[in-house]
Amino acid sequence: MRGSRALAVTACVLLFAAGSSAVTRSGTAAGLPPADRPCALRAAPGTAMSEGFGDGGHDFAAATGDVRALTLMVDFPDKRAPYPAEERYREFFPAVRQWFHRASYGRLRYASTPVLRWIRMPRPFSAYGIGRGYGWNAHTAMMRDLLRVADKSIDFSGYSLVNVLVTPNAGPPADQAVLSVTWTGAAAATTDDGARLDRVSLIYGHDQSGARVLSHENGHAFGLPDLYSVDAFGRTDRLAGQWDSMSLDWGLQGDLFAWHKWRLGWLDDAQVLCVRDAATHLVRLSPVEVAGGRKAVVVPLGRTSAYVVEARAARGNDAEACREGVLVYRIRTDVDSGHGPVTVRDAHPATTACEYSSASFNSLNDAPFRPGEHFADPASGLTVEVLAHDPDDDGWTVRVTNRHPWRTEKARAAAHTATGALRREDARR
Hints:
The protein is of the alpha/beta class. The chain contains seven helices and 15 strands.
């Protein structure tokens, strides 16, 4: 949450999502960009879970090194668990730990400490008012009740985040209403010894994404936004499609964008080519799914926007990927979570692919560019040409031409105004 002043705003982020959501204070993942990282765009102030780099303080967990998660299983007097707690736990672990290991190239060492028994909440499930888009008051009531029955027997201190795996028979099936949610940035409750429940991921039902629903929710705890549309979920596949688990976490492509991996500290600056000059660069890209090599080209369009070019392969977390190739997308640091901060450019806008992956979210499954294909944005002066693919190591050779040197939005506007003035002067002459 963003505190009491922003409860109404953050509730809207949560309420209308057809998928899982995050409610958070304004902030970003750690890693404030110094002056010598010009393509690491800074977070836009006031933007919910901005895609920019910034210092999120205690709002978000660090995503590198040892990350400790306390994992609890809860049920209710009116919704008793239908099977042992360990069985619920095994739905997510070790899968989530392995997913983060692959996605981070081993830089995030995820350790889950489970309490392998059902914790019976003191009130019935129906008493909390848990429904799609439930609010901060309901969450606070749940967390305070959780501490009432668990604080004396469980040590909550020393954990980066808390996972609460709710008995799957509480609430409607996930195909009717996805209730899973992450709350971060404000403490819903505090233990007797001062541990704050301020980064909590709750999982309800049996989601079609399986264990990846928890990877998605934990992504919020690390500061990543929702990439699906909270206002018009039906058009979600025309934003980021299935190319990032913060978009459609049940999709074929289950990894994260290179931009996200860079923000989380899983990529070094040397693995990202920053193109600010007006020039042509020949670049060999290594797929995002494997460790090592150049992972992305970033072309800033101003202080709040950039194009990113990366390669994707059917390997690792993307083993079931629909298509391989070079992905081009635009990031906006001034767009709120759930409103399209990332938009993928479709190499084949007239077609879809792998229709079996989803009933109606397949328009971007064939978005990657292949050898002989190119992307061009005349307005920004950017052209990306895919020249070759080496099947031996999945390397992709691209030529990136940037015709406009990087300038701030203010400088661009000033240049546009000046150009218009000169043209009017020439016309008068």
